[in-house]
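Complex record, two chains
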Amino acid sequence: MSGPLVETRDVEKRFDLGGYFWQQDKPVVRALNGVSIAIEKGESFCLVGESGCGKSTLARCIMGLLDLSEGEVFYKGEQIDRLSAKAMMPYRRRMQMIFQNPYASLNPRMTIQKTLEEPLRFHFPEMKNGEVRDKVEEVMTSVGNDPAWGTRYPHEFSGGQRQRISIARALMVDPDFVVADEPISALDVSIQAQVLNVMMDARDSRDLTYLFITHDLSVVRHFGTRVGVMYLGALCELAQTKTLFDTPRHPYTQVLLNAIPKLSTTELIHTPMMGEVPTAIKLPSGCVFHPRCPYANERCSREVPAGTTLDDGTVVACHAVEENRI
Amino acid sequence: MNAAIRRFAQSNFMYSFGRDKVAMVSFAILAAFVILAFSAPLIAPYDPYDQTTIDIMDSEIPPAWQDEGEARFLLGTDAQGRDMLSTILYGTRISIIIGVCAVLMQMFLGITIGLVSGYVGGRIESFFMRLADIQLSLSTLMLAIVALAIFQAAFSAEAYSDLAIIMLIMVIGFAEWPQYARTIRASVLAEKKKEYVDAARVIGLGAPTIMFKHILPNTLSPLLVISTVQVANAIISEAALSFLGLGIPVTKPSLGSLINSGFEFIFSGSWWITAIPSIVLIALILCINLLGDWVRDALNPKIYKEK
C-alpha cells in the first residue's frame, strides 16, 4: 500500500466564544493552527504536549467528532472530513477511539454486554445472536477480561477494568486505526502498565495503527514509534522516538525533555522555562513559542516557521534550527 | 427478568423505602385509593351514571352516622339523590385518569422538546426555551380557562360533556410541558459532554438513537421526581377547572365538580356534599406529594440519609 494510513493537512480548528453581535472581531479560540501529520500503517504515533495545546482537539477532528475550520483529513488517501453521516459510515468501522476517563466513557445504564454488542449490531445487522456472543467473548478474553462480566454494570468495575472494557468496545468492529486519547492518565501507575500491555498486544495481534495522545514522556519512549510534539495548536517537532529523545531539535522539545526528573545525577540541571503559556485567544505573532524561547530573534516574532525536514527525517518548525543558530 | 426484579428489591431505592414510614403509609393510602377507584364498577353500591337508579326523593340525605342518615347511603346523597360513596369512587377514578394521562402528555411533549433542544442546541434550543419561558410566565390555570371556555362555546353542551375528559387532558398536558422540557434539557446538557456520548458517535449511531437510548435513560431520576409532583398538580388543576364549571360536567362528576356541586348547599346544612370529596382530594394530593418528597430524597445521592 502506498501513502500514509491517516493524514491531516493544514488542519485548523477555531472555537467561537460568542461575543456580542456588534463586536467587530469576536473572540475566537485558535485551538489548531495548521497541523499536518501523516501516520503510516502499523505505527504507534504519539502526540505529546502540555494541557490545552490541542492534542485532543486534533484527535477529535480526525475522528469526525468536531468539524474542521480549515484543512483536510485523509484515510487511505480518501478525504473523510465534511462527509455526511451516511458517507462516513464505512470509515466509522475502520477508525475507533479510546477515551481518557473510564468513569465517563461507558454508559452507566447499559450492561457491559449491551455496550459491547451495540457497535457490532449496528455495523453488522446481519450477524446472528450466537455469532455476536462469540465475538464479544473473543474480544473480552483477548483484552484480559472475564466474558462473564457481561451481565454487570460499569459501576461494578475498577478504573483499569473499565478501561479494558473500553478498549474491547473499540476493538469490537475490527478497526485498522485506533485513537487513544490519554487512555492511561486517569489510572493508577500499577494499572497503567497493564493497560498499555493490553494495547500493545492488540496492536501486534490485530495489526492496529495507533494515534496515542499523552503527556507522559516515559510512556512515549516505551510505546511510540514516532512522536509529534505540540505547543499551542501547532506542531513543533516530529521525529522517530529514539531520535527525539537522543537529539531534541526544537527549543520547546528540549525544555520538555529537560523537565523529566532524572535519577542518575545528583545535581539539579533542570532549567525552568520562563513565563506562562499564552492564551489561544490572542496567539503570539510569528512562531507561537517565541515569547518563551531563549533563541528567539526578530524574525521569529514576525514569521510563522514552516516545517523543515532534516537529514534524519525529523521535521522541525523553528527558524533557529533552519538557520543553524542552535 | 428475575435478576432485574432481584436487583430492584435489593437496591438502595427499596432499602430507603423500607426505612421511611411516611413513604410507606403514603404509598399504602395511595394504593388503596387507586385500587378502590379503579374497581368502582365492582364495589360501588350504586351506579351514579345510571339515571334510572337515581331518585330525587333521596336527595340530601346526610351520612349514615347522622341522625337523619340512612344505612343504604353510607356517606349520604347529593342534591340529585346520588349515593355519595359511589359518586366519589367514580369521581376519584376520573380525577386519577385525568392526572396521569395529562402528565403522560406533558412527558411526551416535554421529553421530546427537551431532548432535542438540549442535544441539537442552536436556534432550535433558543426557540423552544423562549417559548417555554413565555408559557411559564402565563399562569397554567389562566391558559386552561381561556382554552376550555373557547372549546365549551365551540361545541354543543352534549358534545362537550363527551369530550370533556379528553379536552382536560389535552389542555392540562399542553399547559405544563415546559416543566419537563426545562428539567430534561438541563440534564441533557450535562450528559452530552460525557465521553460515552462521544463513544456512541464514534460508533456512528444516529442522533435519535443517541438521544433516546443513551442520554434519556441517564436523565430519568429527575423526571421521576417531577412526575409525582406533576400528577398532583394536574389533579388539582382538573379539580380547580371543574370547580369553576369548565371541566367535567356534573352528570359524570370528578372530585372537583362534585365539590362544586355541593358548594351552594354548604350553608343550608348539607356540608357533606362538599366536605367529603374535599377530604378525599386533599388526602390523595397529600399522599402523592409526600411520596414525591421521598422519591426526591431517595434518588438524590447527595442527601443520602444515614438513618
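Note: The mean pLDDT of chain A is 87.
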